[in-house]
Amino acid sequence: MKIRLAAQLQPDSIVDGEGIRTVVWTQGCPHNCPGCHNPGTHDFNGGALVDVEDIIAELKTIQNQDGITLSGGDPVCQSEACSVIAKAAHNMGLNVWCYTGYTYEKMLQNPAHRQLLDNIDVLVDGKFILAEKSYDLYFKGSRNQRIIDVKKSLEENKVVLVEKYKEEKDNSNHYEKPSYLFV
Ligand code: SF4
Question: Fewer CB atoms < 10 Å away: N or C end of the chain?
Answer without folding.
Answer: C
